[in-house]
Amino acid sequence: MRNIYMTDELEEIRHQVETFVEREVVPNGDQWEEDGLIPRELLEKMGSLGMFSLRVPEARGGLGMGEIASVVFAEALATSTFAGFEITALVHTDLAMPHLLRSGTPEQHDRVLPAVMLGETIMALAITEPDAGSDVAGIRTSAVKDGDGYRLNGSKLYITNGVYGDLVVVAARTDPSERYGLSMFLVESDREGFAVSKKLDKHGWRSSDTAELTFTDCWIPQENLLGTEHRGFYEIMKNFQNERLILGAMAVGAAQKGIELALQWTQQRAAFGGTLYDKQTIRHRLAMHQAHVDAGRAALYHAAWLAENGVDATKEVSAMKAFTGEMVNDVLYDCLQFHGGMGYMRESPIERMVRDARILSIGGGATEVMLEEVAKRSML
Amino acid sequence: MKIAVCVKQIPDPATPYQLDPTTHWVIRPPDQVMDDTDRYGVEVALQLKEASEGEVVLVSMGPAGNMQGIRQALAMGADKAVIIDDAELKGSGALSTAKVLAAAIKREGADLVIAGTESSDGYTGVVPQQISELLDVPALTFARKFEKTETGIRIERQTQSGYDVVECGLPALISVTAGVVEPRYPTFKGIMQAKQKPVDQLTVSDLGLDGDSVGGSGSGQDITEVSPVPSRQAGQVIEDDGEGHLRIVELLEQAKVV
Ligand SMILES: Cc1cc2nc3c(=O)[nH]c(=O)nc-3n(C[C@H](O)[C@H](O)[C@H](O)COP(=O)(O)OP(=O)(O)OC[C@H]3O[C@@H](n4cnc5c(N)ncnc54)[C@H](O)[C@@H]3O)c2cc1C
Ligand SMILES: Cc1cc2nc3c(=O)[nH]c(=O)nc-3n(C[C@H](O)[C@H](O)[C@H](O)COP(=O)(O)OP(=O)(O)OC[C@H]3O[C@@H](n4cnc5c(N)ncnc54)[C@H](O)[C@@H]3O)c2cc1C
């Protein structure tokens, strides 16, 4: 499965992650789906192996790698079939941590990075609110200057790692007079005024914890301001590129795994004097889905390579996110179809994968929002 | 203490093996992985190194390919590797392999040699003992527990009914059974560092061996025929009418297992 963007080291990282997932995640995933949480011991094990340090600069004890490494990591995690597990790790490493790495001061890095890299501190990213999803500038949660810090009020919705996480990157309005006047804050989950108001019950990603968070006069010291005051909106937009690459990688990985499961099933399922795979309609539809997965993967690695090389790849990343988010749902729909009744049973991985994939065309930039990003940049 | 670990690169077990129809040799792709069995040997070596001081050298014979399997063992924490790859080794059986590995180990001057009990592709299970014979050092086989003593090494040797405690001075060889330790996963740092670690690639003549004494001609064996394992017969189903257990005991007695 080599491509021109891979190196021997990345190939080995992929191999190690797949081995780890097969041994440590696959046998336990069903239990975690039931519990609605990924055990901290597992996350700490991943941390101690360096799985959370790919993007951390070498000077800080990380591997100093770029977007391609994140994509390889996410795609390899997806071989687990448990996207709830994948997103728990990836929100930590690739949604929340980039804010800390990009905007954090040396003091903030000294303070939190070691435990973050080891998985002892798990991070979350809180942008979405009941009244602000796709339209990030609609954020109402406010942070008002108060003494040597800020006072936070408002609520956040659908926050991954929000229930069991320890350190949340929160977007809040600091300049009410300016539509884009947001700032980012590091908020420890044990701070007074921070509350998990609801643990949300979901269609998929059931082993991932998702929260509604409420801030009530929650005081944050000045040293927890992340980056420049009032510049948070732009930071969010920058980091969205990485987030979308990751979601694209999850989609490509899940679709590939779905095809693999469908191949296994249809090639052994006896029907009409042969196997299901002997039916041309099944062979060809799976083959066309494979073509779509290959196309998605090519777009994914190309976009990651552009981003890693400092090119503004908003158009390519958005197009890829739109394509892969829809593609994975189309592919898995048929993969379930070809499993017949078994595909409808809770015991089959494909049933869970279909539920898990649904979010990939909604979260981190819905397909319509992504298409708008492409269309805006395609005007002559 | 310098520890040499025998590590074999094998075709990825996840992809089906192919045999050459005329020579019956395994067709080896350039991408080969570390034999899973040898992960235990590497782990034991690393634990012994961590408990005292020392160096862990990997020794391997076979087509080097892109050395993925070797790098996997280096990523776990071994210090360096020696790989012997030479066209003259084509067709090597167990004895040829042992001769080559023994010569490489001698060249390294190892105090302790660690090998798997049997490989997962060839599984003759004789290479370790042959190496010990060629090096003229004691072989402590089927080790399930191990510790460094003042002057040597002590192991628990797995037997059919329990275990023996066996002890000897150095140099020595131990063969380890799969499952005795929990092999560590390489850290991502380890993976990145593996490529920088020294790997000596040697030929038969580098080891001062005569080409005729190794390879196909030095093996003293010929593979005359290869046939698939017969598929298993369907088992016997015993319906339990309340007396089923008696019937099962009877069958077990007939099979002389109880
Ligand atoms: C399981 C889960 C986990 C999540 N994790 C996090 C998290 O960790 N942190 C976080 O901040 N957020 C998180 N989210 C929130 C997620 O990013 C938002 O749900 C997403 O951005 C969409 O926002 P919304 O739900 O408010 O939908 P809305 O913005 O209300 O959009 C609803 C629908 O309208 C359509 N639409 C939206 N905008 C346009 C447009 N411009 N043109 C045409 N059609 C449009 C789309 O089809 C969209 O799906 C999570 C969501 C879920 C479900
Ligand atoms: C050029 C070349 C071509 C070869 N072609 C073939 C082929 O076509 N078919 C084939 O089956 N084999 C081939 N070999 C490999 C060689 O024949 C086997 O290694 C040998 O038969 C050992 O047998 P085994 O695996 O049953 O060892 P076992 O005795 O079962 O192995 C026990 C332990 O000994 C060690 N060990 C065994 N072999 C090696 C090794 N090569 N390097 C390092 N440690 C080792 C390992 O620690 C292993 O766990 C080739 C080797 C070379 C150099």
Short structural description:
Chain A is an alpha+beta fold and 380 residues long. Chain A contains eleven helices and ten strands. In chain A, helix 7 (232-268) runs parallel beside helix 9, helix 9 (314-338) packs antiparallel against helix 10 (349-357) and helix 9 runs antiparallel to helix 11 (367-376).
Topology:
The complex is a heterodimer of chains A (about 375) and B (about 260).
Chain A: H1 8-25, H2 29-35, H3 40-48, H4 67-77, H5 83-103, H6 106-117, E1 123-126, E2 142-145, E3 149-160, E4 167-173, E5 182-188, E6 194-199, E7 210-221, E8 225-226, H7 232-268, E9 270-271, E10 274-275, H8 280-308, H9 314-338, H10 349-357, H11 367-376
Chain B: E1 2-6, E2 9-11, E3 32-34, H1 36-51, E4 55-61, H2 68-76, E5 80-84, H3 94-108, E6 112-116, H4 127-135, E7 139-148, E8 152-158, E9 163-169, E10 172-176, H5 188-194, E11 199-202, H6 244-254
Parallel strand pairs in B: 1-4, 1-6, 4-5, 5-11, 6-10, 7-10
Antiparallel strand pairs in B: 2-3, 7-8, 8-9
Helix pairs in contact in B: 2-5, 3-4
The complex binds flavin-adenine dinucleotide (2 copies).
